[in-house]
Every structure is written in C-alpha cells, then in structure tokens.
C-alpha cells in the first residue's frame, strides 16, 4: 500500500484553528488541471486523529493521478454533533469553490473516511445538505457550492450510532455520549436516548437519490462491529437505493480483519468503483 507524502498545500477552509486541509497532488499536477479528487476524513472517535492520518487506499489514488484532500475538523468535547459534520460540509464546498487553483474537477469528487471519519463522510454524502448539517455562517461563495459527492467510501465506519453504542468495545458509550453531548454521571455508561441516537444515524438519512457507497469493513472488527456494514446495505435495499458495494475483509493480516480493513481491501474493485462513479 502507498504511503502519502508531504502535502503540496495546507489551507484553512474556515475561521477555526482546526479547520485546515492538506492537498496532496500527483506527479505532473498543475493548478489549472481538472483532476478527480478524493476528500478524506480521518478517524479517531470524533475526539482525536489528524489530517495526516490518510488511509493507504486513499493515498494510492495519488499515483493514479488523483488529487487527495485530507481534512481536519473540530473535535469533541469542544465540538459535538452536528458541528464536525458542518466542518466536512464546509471543506467540500471549499474544495469546489477553489477547484481552479487546486487543479481538480468539482464534478468528480468522492468523499472517503475511516471509522468516525467514515461517519462524517457518509453524513455529508447522505445528508442532503439539510439545514442542521450546514454551518449558518457559511460565506456566500461557499453557500453557492454543493457538498454532495459523486460517491462515498467508508472504512470501518460508524453508520448506525444506536447499534454502535451497544457494541462490546469499552469506549463505545463514552464516545457516543461525547459526540451527541449527552450528560453522563458515569462517562462509560450510555446516557443518550434511543431517539437521539437514531436521529443522528446516517442509515436513517439514506434514500434512493443518494450517491453510491463502497463500504469496507473487517469481519472481526472489535471497535466498530461489522454489523454496521450490513445495516447500511440492508437500509439501502429497503429504500430503493441499492447502490452499496460491500467489501468485507475476512482474510489477510489481523489488523485488516479488524479495525484497519484498508490493508486488506480489494484495491482493484475500489478503483473501478471510483472510476465508474466519476466518469
């Protein structure tokens, strides 16, 4: 798998110190190119991680001529739902608004994310730019852009928060409480109501008009259970979407079968999905 190098550019996409993005470019890139672009969202339980954490699946696209933009966003406990989603929404709009200097084609944009970042990527991709998920202070030049991607790729992602909160991983309740700002006497005991978790689950937002999804998950993931992948596929069928492609990693290194399925994913199938989605 490819490791990503130093970014060509690091840019602020909003006024907060955490609202930064890195732009990684392929050999021969020019600012006036119109290349396909991946906007990647790192994981870390909504409370950690960095834009330097780029999935090797995503990094591999640079060698194929894609531009990769990796995004930081505000973290818990300083920023709870829906603020991190609003940050990613803003970042996608920023990329499109600045396509002329980033060398990208705004009509060929894919959102990707790992773990909690996969949730944020899916939330923007499936959220239909509903007012709750859009910063009320967006400047006019960003509000004029769409944040809807051509496709979504998730890796070990939280997609149904209610189901995730019931996972056996010791920190599941803790990070759910933090992300949804549910006050808890004991931070390791779930304090969020089922209705609050359901309302924040991207599986609830999926409908037949949404872009296609490529969902990578380790069969033995002990942090975010593989049920997340099955739940989004089931929901996709129920609502007439039917464009979820599952890649359940059930062989290869232990990390790949657990929470880092990018190390065991079908790269050829993923790249075909990316190309088909951005023609």
Task: Summarize the structure in words.
The protein is of the alpha/beta class and 279 residues long. Helix content is 30%, strand content 18%. The protein is built from eleven helices and eight strands. Strands 1-2-4-3-5-6-7-8 form an eight-stranded mixed β-sheet, with helices on both faces. The longest helix is centred in the first third of the chain and has 15 residues, at 83-97. The chain is globular, with a radius of gyration of 17 Å. The two termini are 25 Å apart. The mean pLDDT is 97.
What is the number of beta strands?
A: 8
H and E order: EEEHEHHEHHEHHHEHEHH
Enumerate the strands of the largest sheet in spatial order, edge to edge or round the barrel. Answer: 1-2-4-3-5-6-7-8
Shape: globular
Helical content band: 25-40%
Give the end-to-end Cα distance, rounded to a whole number of Å: 25 Å
List low-confidence stretches: none
The whole-number mean of residue pLDDT values reads 97
Quote the beta fraction. Answer: 15-25%
| Alpha-beta content class | alpha/beta
Q: Characteristics of this structure?
A:
279 residues, 30% helix, single chain, alpha/beta
Summary, kept brief:
The protein is an alpha/beta fold. The chain has helices at 56-59, 83-97, 99-102, 116-126, 140-143, 161-165, 172-179, 194-199, 227-238, 254-257, 267-277; strands spanning 9-12, 20-24, 35-41, 67-71, 104-114, 151-155, 213-218, 244-249.
Provide the fold topology.
Layout: E1 9-12, E2 20-24, E3 35-41, H1 56-59, E4 67-71, H2 83-97, H3 99-102, E5 104-114, H4 116-126, H5 140-143, E6 151-155, H6 161-165, H7 172-179, H8 194-199, E7 213-218, H9 227-238, E8 244-249, H10 254-257, H11 267-277
Parallel strand pairs: 3-4, 3-5, 5-6, 6-7, 7-8
Antiparallel strand pairs: 1-2, 2-4
Helix pairs in contact: 2-4
């Amino acid at each position: 798998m490819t490791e990503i190098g130093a970014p060509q550019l690091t840019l602020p996409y909003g006024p907060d110190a955490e609202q930064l993005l890195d732009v990684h470019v392929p050999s021969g890139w020019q600012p006036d190119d119109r290349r396909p672009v991946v906007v990647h969202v790192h994981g870390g339980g909504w409370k950690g991680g960095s834009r330097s954490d780029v999935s090797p699946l995503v990094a591999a696209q640079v060698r194929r001529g894609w531009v990769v933009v990796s995004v930081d966003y505000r973290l818990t406990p300083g920023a709870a739902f829906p603020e991190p989603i609003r940050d990613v929404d803003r970042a996608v709009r920023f990329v499109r608004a600045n396509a002329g200097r980033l060398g990208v084609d705004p009509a060929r944009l894919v959102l990707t994310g790992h773990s909690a970042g996969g949730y944020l990527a899916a939330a923007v991709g499936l959220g239909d730019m509903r007012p709750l998920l859009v910063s009320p202070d967006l400047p006019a030049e960003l509000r004029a852009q769409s944040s809807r991607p051509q496709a979504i790729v998730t890796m070990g992602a939280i997609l149904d928060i209610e189901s995730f909160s019931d996972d056996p991983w010791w920190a599941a309740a803790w990070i759910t409480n933090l992300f949804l700002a549910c006050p808890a006497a004991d931070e390791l005991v779930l304090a969020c109501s089922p209705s609050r978790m359901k309302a924040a689950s991207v599986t609830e937002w999926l409908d037949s008009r949404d872009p296609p999804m490529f969902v990578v998950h380790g069969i033995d993931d002990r942090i975010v259970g593989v049920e997340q992948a099955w739940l989004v596929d089931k929901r996709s069928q129920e609502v007439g979407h039917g464009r979820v492609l599952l890649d359940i990693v059930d062989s290869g290194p232990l990390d790949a079968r657990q929470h880092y399925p990018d190390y065991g994913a079908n790269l050829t199938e993923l790249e075909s999905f990316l190309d088909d989605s951005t023609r």
